[in-house]
Amino acid sequence: MNVAQFQHKLAEMEEENLMLRLQLDVYRDELFKKYESFLDEKLTAEMDKKLSLDVRKAEADMRQKMQEEIKLLREELQRLRALGKVEPKFNKVEKTVEAPTLQATA
After folding, report:
1. What is the pTM of this model?
2. How far is it, in rounded angstroms, from Cα 3 to Cα 11?
3. In whole angstroms, what is the distance from residue 51 CA to residue 43 CA?
4. Fewer Cβ neighbours under 10 Å: the N or C end of the chain?
5. For residue 1, what are the contacts with CB-CB under 8 A and spacing of at least 6?
6. What is the DSSP track for 16-60?
7. In angstroms, rounded to a whole number, what is the distance separating the alpha carbons of residues 72 and 79?
8. Which residues in the chain belong to E strands, given as ranges?
9. Distance in angstroms (rounded) separating the CA atoms of residues 29 and 22
10. CA of residue 63 relative to chain centroid, distance
């Protein structure tokens, strides 16, 4: 093999090497895009899952607070009913109150 043939073969191999590098770059970009998409989907799914758990926890907390408030209100109602049976009941006398009126002078 002479020098000219060697240089020609080297140029062909360099061109092939460049084409392979370009293909590798394209594949790498595609893979990176797919990976980003996968991560976005996974992150979205995790966020949805966490949000769902947070919402369920908030609902459970609210339900518990409401049950405690209902319990306290029932106890207060029973206490008031018990007091109503023990204490004498007073009759309320309603008085009519006259409101002062302004009379227009002519």
Report:
1. 0.43
2. 12
3. 12
4. C
5. 9
6. HHHHHHHHHHHHHHHHHHHHHHHHHHHHHHHHHHHHHHHHHHHHH
7. 10
8. none
9. 11
10. 19
